[in-house]
Design brief:
The complex is a heterodimer of chains A (164) and B (1512).
Chain A: E1 2-13, E2 21-28, E3 33-38, E4 41-43, E5 55-67, E6 75-83, E7 88-98, H1 119-128, E8 131-134, H2 139-142
Antiparallel strand pairs in A: 1-5, 2-4, 2-6, 3-5, 6-7
Chain B: H1 3-17, H2 19-40, H3 47-57, H4 67-79, H5 88-93, H6 100-121, H7 134-141, H8 146-155, H9 161-177, H10 187-194, H11 203-223, H12 261-264, E1 271-274, E2 277-278, E3 296-309, H13 315-336, H14 338-357, H15 366-415, E4 423-429, H16 433-483, H17 489-498, H18 519-533, E5 541-547, H19 560-571, E6 572-580, E7 583-587, E8 591-592, E9 598-609, E10 616-624, E11 629-637, E12 652-657, E13 674-675, E14 685-686, E15 690-699, H20 719-726, H21 728-732, H22 734-738, H23 740-749, H24 760-770, H25 786-789, H26 794-799, H27 801-810, H28 833-842, H29 855-879, H30 884-887, H31 896-906, E16 922-923, E17 934-943, E18 947-948, H32 965-969, E19 993-999, E20 1002-1005, E21 1015-1023, H33 1033-1037, E22 1042-1054, E23 1068-1081, H34 1082-1088, E24 1090-1097, E25 1106-1107, H35 1110-1116, H36 1120-1124, E26 1128-1137, E27 1139-1140, H37 1156-1172, E28 1181-1184, E29 1189-1191, H38 1203-1208, H39 1213-1225, H40 1232-1235, E30 1242-1243, H41 1246-1252, H42 1257-1270, E31 1274-1282, E32 1286-1295, E33 1298-1302, E34 1309-1311, E35 1319-1326, E36 1331-1334, E37 1354-1356, H43 1382-1403, ...
Parallel strand pairs in B: 16-27, 28-30, 38-40
Antiparallel strand pairs in B: 3-9, 3-15, 4-5, 6-7, 6-8, 6-10, 10-11, 12-15, 13-14, 17-21, 17-26, 18-25, 19-20, 19-22, 22-23, 24-26, 28-29, 31-32, 31-35, 32-33, 33-34, 35-36, 36-37, 39-41, 40-41
Helix pairs in contact in B: 4-8, 6-9, 13-15, 14-15, 15-18, 16-18, 23-24, 39-42, 43-46, 44-45
Classes of the chains: A mainly beta (164), B alpha+beta (1512).
């Protein structure tokens, strides 16, 4: 009978080239984990920082798990999106990190990346917005072969702080 | 023949066949050798070396480039033959003689001309060479594959173009640059030539290319199997370092930038360019958006059941079923007739070989023919084997059939009775013996011939092998001998013998010459086999035929055990349960087991399904006699493919078996127990109960021919969809897991990575399944090793009460929605917490008839409950959407203007003479608890309260004329009372009313005032408790409690027994008599924040002992306006303290089927209206019951009222209209805001409304308006606000010269200028074809003009600019009314009466409750009268009659009239009158209930309650 409380917040992001950012997040667990209460996924508000480049969301996360095994420890996966002046949204980065397995307060920083795409796509992104996205978004956190993405352009590292 | 062999063959053929091929091939080999040489050399490139190499080879090999070579091959292959430019032949033949310069010049020239010609030809330019993928390199190395061969074929024409074309590309580029005279290359060119670089590309590109070249060679080194260990060489070089290859790891990235990522990136890393999307607040939570309408149907046809074994089988049955099975098998085989097919095939093949061998017909080259013949021969061999096997099987089958039949016959003889009607007839088909023999012999001969051929072939091959190996052996032997002469011969022999079988690597073994074949032996074998498996020539063909023609021995001729068995069979019956997703959905009827153990069901079950089907199971149950049923077996049916629809589905048989052990004490063999056919008990058999269910499962076809199949593509938003695809179960369903083909297909589709460890078990499973092995593991794990690491089992986890409680609370299950503080330990959680919830789950589909006396209403209530639940669930998520203001409460920072005003306030008067109302602060309902909220009811005054009638009137007919002014207003006892006795000792006034407010069973009352127009001006405070202590908006919205404001008359009786004590003591009893009530739902107060106004008191039509002083004022000619009213009124002000924020309606838009243009127009119209008059209601679109937006005029359409009502007053239209209004008002009122918890106002159509028998103002108004339209009136739907309802819907009609406003919920109507009309403001009018918005200055109905034709007063929606498009109605064509069952109504009446009587007794626990039967029956007679007159103008007669009959009683009572919905409101209404509160010791009660049924189950309920006190 193990129970795990994940309580924390997504503080914000920094280091992105875009300014208006918001974040879609989700917690992924193995089959042994059962969500007792709380919301598994969500989305923050858009923050346009006026001072500095850190976008603050302070988005609360409050989950309560019961588990029968340690496999599939909860993982937090994040998608940082940016909103342009027309209110359109585009992907700014994927990222994922494990929820720390020791109790207490932790500050996590999760680097993110995004696919660069071909020069054509990069050009399109620069001018008309949008951008390449993963067709299978679950590879962000479930793939054992993430290393193969070396060819892809890294995104800027944001700063997601989570306090479990 | 596998492809590799084939390839080798092709290559060898080519070598022998085609010189040029060989030539090219050789050159290829050379180039390869060259490369290999180069590899061994140090990587310094010496021009001299190159030159020598080149001259040696005779062909120009660009050293670093191997790709262009293939590239060129590819090019020529594409280009095909073409003319040669003149030069190269000379250059090729004698270029040793030419000087270097000469050669260079020639080459350049050649190159240039080549380039020119290439340019002239305008061939699509190939991709730059650096982009060649490694696959083209393979093309070269794996020489001889199909494309390579092709290249060869075209290449052979000019092998020289090879060298020339190479230059084309670079030279084309140089051409524009270099302007040197022909024949004299510049120094740079010369250098380039020597370094073999004709590519004048920029430096870095060149560098890259070289790197690439090296890269290529490096790769070969890496992949090469040779290790750099060579025995003789030294380990260290001259510089003292280890001799080693350069490190393969380069310090910098050598991989070229990837421009086509699609090729190399794994499928799951695919990216998709998505445009920047405007993030719209998605309407995903709405009804019907995206979700497929859950109307799918699965038809399961269960035709029957056959037992192949059953415990009650007798021995004969066992044999019979065996026989039947064999026969079925035989029939199936016979139908396919594989043997015949194979024989024909064999024949055809033999013919083909014959013709192939025929030299005359030889068209093709010899070896191809030879090849095909070889192929044919091998095929013949295969086919023959197959055919023999088939024939043998046929024959054994036939033999077994006959054997079983014989056994059966002997058994029948032995036991001297027959149990089964089975009968086998063997038909003999005569055959021509001679012809048969010939065929037989020919066949054998052919076989022998072929076999011989094979054997000789094999023999020759073996001989060949033998010879070579023998030679080897000999050589080896010689060497051996030379080396070790000492070794003994014998030992060697030994070794030979021992290692004979071992492979030759261990040292040559002395080969043994193969045995030559013996034709006689072969013949012998062939004949033996033929005799075994084939029908002998001349033997008649046997065709078995199984029939049921035999007769079964009747019971009386059988031994006792057999009779017992038969009886047992008769007692057994079987039925099937159908389980869908492991839930029982239906079951077949129970059928008796026939003597032949066949059960016919022939039932079709139509399953309306909502969930994606995951499993479909049939459970076979057997009942023996009257004892309990037992589960025999489970049969799992596959979910049909989506292409299988009803009518096309074949009937299939699924076998089942059970592992139960049954031993029977009669002839039945039992199941799972050994038995034997032999007398001595040997050869025992154990048979298990088994059988077959024949069924067919298919998807149903809808009315319009569309199959009702759930769509395969489950669209899902966000990251989930990807997850879903990766998850096998969710993408193909659990049933797919058992279907290997599907699984493999899915794996292929989703591009599973086979190397991914997490996919390993799946991959293994698929490989097992697809490799054709029959072994399929019977389990499948998605997460391997999970089980081993669990520290708790699933069951334990699920059993945890704490987790369950937490989970349920999170799901917002009503019972646990606001549960606080869940204990940390299981032991602290009571088991009974879940009881209510489990009970509710169990009873979900059970219709409770306890609360609902009649079943239809119970069903409707259930349905409403379900609709409500589903709607609430759908909106649960929407409820979690918060706005910024919901979460962030920010106090405004005071600025200078606020400071100024606050300073100004200091100078203000403390108590201004004309105070203005200040807005109260609103409180969000989040952090409230019990006792925080109070309901404030301010009761101001009342008008026209009924006054007491003197009891004395029983002696005389009360007449209006007899009543005088003095009668009402004198303070002395009434002159009519004959005795100034105890009855009215204190009655100085006619009535002493007080008000009692009851809410949530809390009761408050005012002081007693006097007179018919009392003024209280009192504030009452009632606490408010939310259900379950949940003060969230959603919960508050669904509070269903009503505030009852009851007006009572306080009557004081002097009960002093002894007149002598009158001077010293007072002994009075206070009685109170109910006069009327006002009922205001809490939701109204909640939504409007305050209810303020004068309300009509709901006074029963008859109040015994009271009368309205209605005519008095008329007589006095006083207050003409008030005289119009015939009711009593009360002025109230109700509010909630603190003020609550009413929940907003859902912020999402609903989808619609309306025209986009129309929707835009409605938005525009509404915006315009809201701009001008923000407070007036304007309604153009509404939401129907399925959650779609519908234009409002679609609801209005003439609809027929019940014929019964029309027949009532055939010639009086006004009366008919009133009756219809009354009918509508009798349909119970149920506010949407309560049922759908403030989510939205759902409009149901009139037929839905009549079916549900519940609705709010809008539905009532729509129905009434439709009836009026049908009656030919001009009628409109009037949206406005009224008291106490707030925003509401009324009906407006035009009657010849005046307008009437109808309240659809009460059935009352008012003239336009009626001051007591509850309608206070008019927002818009809606007709069947237009909507008019009120743009007049005022909105009170008294002050406005209803003439909608005036555009200055009414703004119409459809106008000239937007004409009415002729919208079709959502209403049905016609309403159909069923007559209500009178008997049921009568029964209901009795039940209600009984319930109410019991309740009244319950409410008086301290007193005895007596019922006055006589009075009850009188009242009962009176109620129908009231119904027919609708409660008017009967009062006086009735009272007189009552008094006459009851004489000596003081009577107080009244009839209550209500529409019927449930019993509870009736009880509540009776309770609120407080009749039961009388505690006079000798009080008697009378209660009568009358139900008048109207069509369509609309019931009008009258309850007459009275209390009687005997006068002394």
């Amino acid at each position: 009978m193990a129970e795990v409380h994940v309580i924390g917040q997504i503080m914000g992001a920094t280091g992105f080239s875009e300014s208006s950012l918001f974040c879609k997040w989700g917690i992924h667990t193995g089959a042994a984990w059962k969500l007792l209460s709380g919301v598994r996924e969500g989305q923050t508000q858009v923050d346009t920082p006026q001072i500095g480049d850190m976008a603050y969301w302070s988005h609360p996360i409050d989950l309560h798990f019961a588990t029968k095994g340690l496999q599939g420890w909860p993982r937090l996966h994040l998608q940082v999106w940016s909103q342009d002046s027309f209110g359109r949204c585009q992907l700014a980065g994927y990222g994922f990190c494990h929820v720390p397995s020791s109790p207490g307060t932790h500050r996590l920083e999760c680097p993110t990346w995004r696919p660069l795409g071909s020069w054509r796509e990069q050009l399109a992104r620069a001018f008309v917005g949008g951008g390449p996205q993963l067709v299978h978004a679950d590879t962000i956190y479930s793939g054992a072969d993430r290393y193969r993405r070396g060819t892809w352009g890294p995104g800027a590292p944001p700063d997601h702080r989570l306090r479990p | 023949m596998n492809p590799r062999e084939e390839k080798v063959k092709i290559i060898t053929e080519e070598f022998t066949e085609n010189e040029e091929h060989a030539d090219v091939g050789r050159r290829k080999k050379n180039s390869k050798a060259q490369r290999r040489q180069r590899k061994k050399q140090p990587p310094t490139t010496d021009p001299e070396d190159m030159v020598s190499e080149k001259s040696h080879n005779g062909s120009q090999q660009e050293p670093a480039q191997e790709e262009p070579e293939t590239h060129l091959l590819g090019m020529t292959a594409k280009r095909g033959p073409r003319s040669l430019p003149p030069i190269p032949s000379a250059s090729r033949t004698g270029f040793a003689e030419f000087s270097m310069r000469e050669r260079m010049r020639e080459k350049l020239q050649a190159a240039r001309s080549k380039a020119e010609s290439a340019l002239l030809q305008e061939i699509p330019i190939p991709k730059p060479r650096r982009l060649r993928s490694p696959s083209s390199r393979e093309l070269e190395t794996e020489f001889g594959t199909e494309p390579g061969k092709e290249v060869q074929g075209t290449q052979q024409e000019d092998s020289q173009s090879y060298s020339r074309v190479k230059f084309r590309d670079p030279v084309r580029k140089t051409k524009s640059k270099t302007q040197a005279p022909p024949g004299f290359p510049s120094a740079e060119e010369a250098y380039n030539f020597f370094t073999f670089n004709f590519d004048p590309e920029p430096e870095e590109l060149e560098g890259k290319k070289q790197i690439k070249g090296r890269d290529g060679s490096d790769q070969e080194e890496e992949s090469g199997e040779e290790l750099p260990v060579q025995g003789e060489r030294k380990w260290f070089g001259d510089d003292g370092r280890i001799l080693a290859l350069p490190s393969p790891i380069k310090p910098f990235s050598s991989r070229p930038p990837l421009f086509t990522p699609a090729q190399s990136i794994k499928a799951e890393l695919e990216t998709l360019y998505k445009k920047a999307v405007k993030y719209v607040h998605s309407s995903q939570h709405m009804i019907g958006s995206g979700d497929p309408p859950g109307n799918f149907q699965l038809d399961i046809d269960i035709s029957g059941l056959i037992f192949t074994h059953h415990p009650c089988f007798s021995r004969e049955h066992v044999l019979a079923s065996k026989l039947a099975q064999l026969y079925d098998q035989y029939l199936a085989r016979h139908q396919r007739n594989k043997a015949k097919f194979l024989t024909d095939k064999l024949q055809a093949l033999r013919n083909a070989v014959q013709t192939g061998l025929d030299p005359e017909k030889l068209h093709q080259p010899l070896d191809t023919t030879q090849k095909t013949i070889n192929e044919y021969k091998s095929e013949i061999r295969q086919t023959r084997k197959l055919r023999d096997a088939e024939q043998e099987r046929d024959r054994t089958l036939l033999k077994t059939i006959i054997k079983v039949w014989k056994e059966m016959k002997s058994l029948r003889e032995f036991q001297r009775f027959t149990n089964t009607p089975l009968k086998l007839v063997l038909k003999k088909e005569k055959v021509d013996k001679k012809a048969d023999e010939e065929v037989y012999e020919a066949e054998i001969q052919a076989e022998i011939r072929e076999l011989l051929e094979e054997h000789t072939e094999a023999y020759e091959q073996k001989m060949e092998e033998y010879r070579t190996s023998h030679q080897q052996w000999k050589a080896w032997k010689k060497a051996q001998r030379a080396k070790k002469k000492k070794k003994k011969q014998a030992a060697e022999e030994d070794l030979d013998e021992e290692t004979e079988e071992l492979p030759a690597e261990e040292g040559p073994v002395k080969p043994i010459p193969p045995e030559p074949t013996d034709p006689a032996a072969i013949e012998q074998r062939v004949r033996e086999r033929a005799a075994h498996s084939r029908r002998r020539p001349g033997e008649p063909m046997l065709v078995p035929e199984l029939s049921l023609a035999g007769s079964v021995t009747p019971n009386d001729q059988c031994p006792r055990v057999e009779v017992l068995r038969r009886d047992d069979v008769k007692r057994r019956s079987v039925y099937l349960k159908v389980l869908f997703n492991s839930k029982e959905v239906s079951r077949t009827v129970s059928r008796q087991l026939g003597p032949d153990f066949r059960v016919h069901f022939g039932q079709i079950f139509n399953l309306q399904i909502f969930n994606w089907p995951e499993s479909l199971t049939l459970q076979v149950y057997e009942t023996v006699g009257y004892s309990s049923t037992s589960l025999l077996a489970e049969v799992f049916l596959p979910i049909p493919e989506t292409t299988v629809v009803t009518g096309r589905a074949p009937t299939e048989e699924v076998e089942f078996s059970s592992n139960q052990h049954v031993t029977l004490d009669h002839e039945g063999v039992g199941s799972g127990v050994p038995f034997s056919f032999e007398a001595d008990g040997s050869n025992q058999l154990i048979l298990m109960t088994s059988g077959k269910v024949s069924h067919s499962v298919a998807w149903a076809i809808g009315e319009n021919g569309i199959p009702l199949i759930p769509p395969l593509s489950h669209q899902n938003i966000g990251c989930r969809s990807a997850l879903k695809r990766a998850d096998a179960i969710s993408s193909i369903g659990t049933s797919g897991l058992t279907d290997m083909k599907k699984l493999a297909k899915w794996a292929a589709e989703s591009k599973l990575d086979p190397n991914d460890p997490s996919n390993a078990p799946l991959m293994q499973l698929i490989s097992v399944a697809t490799s054709g092995e029959s072994y399929v593991p019977d389990f499948f794990r998605l997460e391997q090793l999970q089980q081993e690491f669990n520290f708790i089992s699933d069951e334990e986890l699920n059993r945890s009460k704490r987790f369950r409680l937490l989970h349920l609370r999170n799901q917002e299950v009503p019972e646990f929605r606001n549960y606080k503080q869940i204990p940390a330990y299981d032991r602290e959680i009571m088991e009974k917490i879940f009881q209510d919830y489990e009970k509710r789950l169990r009873d979900r589909n059970v219709i409770e008839t306890k609360d609902h006396v009649d079943t239809h209403r119970a069903m409707v209530a259930k349905y409403l409950q379900q609709v409500r639940e589903s709607v609430v669930n759908r909106f649960l998520i929407a409820k979690h959407h918060f706005l910024l203001t919901d979460l962030v409460v920010e106090e405004e920072v005071p600025n200078i203007s606020i400071l100024g005003t606050s300073l100004f306030k200091l100078a203000e008067q403390k108590r201004p003479l004309r105070p203005r109302r200040k807005g109260r602060k609103k409180v969000t309902a989040q952090n409230l608890s019990d006792g925080d909220i109070k309901l404030l009811v301010n009761i101001v005054r009342a008008y026209d309260i009924p006054v007491r009638k003197p009891t004395a009137s029983k002696f005389q007919q009360p007449s209006r004329s007899s009543r005088t002014f003095s009668e009402k207003h004198v303070t002395s006892p009434s002159p009519h009372s004959p005795t100034p006795s105890a009855d009215f000792p204190l009655s100085q006034v006619l009535v002493r009313p007080f008000v009692e407010v009851s809410f949530q069973r809390t009761i408050c009352h005012t002081t007693t005032a006097e007179g018919p127009n009392p003024s209280w001006n009192e504030e009452l405070e009632l606490p408010f408790r939310a259900p379950n202590g949940d003060y969230s908006t959603a919960s508050l919205q669904s509070v269903k409690d009503d505030v009852y404001i009851n007006i009572f008359d306080e009557v004081v009786y002097d009960i002093l027994e002894d007149d002598r004590e009158r001077g010293s003591g007072i002994h009075t009893r206070i009685e109170r008599h109910w006069l009327g009530c006002v009922k205001i739902p809490f939701s109204t107060i909640y939504f409007q924040a305050r209810v303020d106004g004068t309300f009509k008191i709901d006074i029963p039509p008859v109040l015994l002992g009271y009368s309205k002083e209605r005519n008095m004022f008329m007589e006095r000619g006083f207050d003409a306006v008030r005289s119009l009213s015939d009711g009593s009124y009360i002025t109230l002000f109700i509010t909630i303290e603190p003020q609550l924020v009413p929940g907003e309606s859902v912020r999402e838009k609903f989808e619609s089927q309306e025209d986009e243009k129309l929707l835009q127009a409605t938005e525009k119209f509404q915006a315009e209206c809201a701009l001008k008059f923000p407070n007036r209601r304007c309604l153009t679109t509404v939401i129907d019951i399925s959650g779609k937006t519908v234009f409002i005029t679609r609801y209005l359409k003439p609809l027929n009222p019940p014929q019964e009502l029309l027949n009532f007053y055939p010639d009086n239209q006004q009366a008919t209209a009133e009756l219809v209004a009354r009918y509508v008002s009798l349909i119970p009122f149920l506010p949407d805001t309560v049922s759908f918890a403030g989510i939205c106002d759902l409009w149901s159509t009139s037929d839905q409304f009549l079916d549900l028998l519940a609705g709010d103002e809008e539905e009532h108004a729509v129905l009434l308006c439709n009836y009026f339209l049908w009656l030919g009136k001009k009628a409109w739907l009037l949206m406005g606000s009224a008291i106490p309802e707030g925003p509401t819907a009324y009906v407006l009609t035009w009657e010849k010269n005046h307008y009437l406003i109808w309240n659809p919920c009460s059935g009352h109507f008012y003239g336009q200028f009626d001051t007591f009309c509850p309608l206070k403001s008019v927002g818009c009018l809606i007709g069947p074809d237009n909507v008019w918005f009120n743009i007049q200055q005022y909105d009170s109905p008294l002050r406005i003009n209803f003439d909608v034709t005036k555009p200055k007063l009414w703004k119409s929606f459809f106008s000239r600019s937007l004409p009415y498009p002729g919208l079709s109605s959502v209403q049905p064509e016609e309403l159909i009314y069923q007559r209500t069952d009178k008997a049921a109504a009568a029964e209901l009446q009795d039940r209600i009466e009984k319930i109410l009587k019991e309740k009244i007794m319950d409410w008086r626990p301290r007193y005895l409750t007596r019922w006055n039967r006589y009075c009850t029956s009188t009242l009962r007679h009176f109620l129908p009268l009231l119904e027919s007159s609708q409660g008017e103008d009967v009062e006086d007669d009735h009272q007189a009659e009552l008094l006459k009959q009851l004489g000596d009683y003081r009577l107080s009572g009244f009839p209550l009239h209500m529409p019927y919905s449930e019993v509870k409101p009736l009880i509540e209404a009776v309770y609120s009158t407080g009749v039961h509160n009388i505690d006079v010791p000798n009080v008697e009660f009378a209660l009568a209930v009358y139900i008048h049924p109207y069509p369509k189950n609309v019931l009008s309920v009258w309850i007459y309650v009275a209390s009687l006190v005997r006068n002394r």
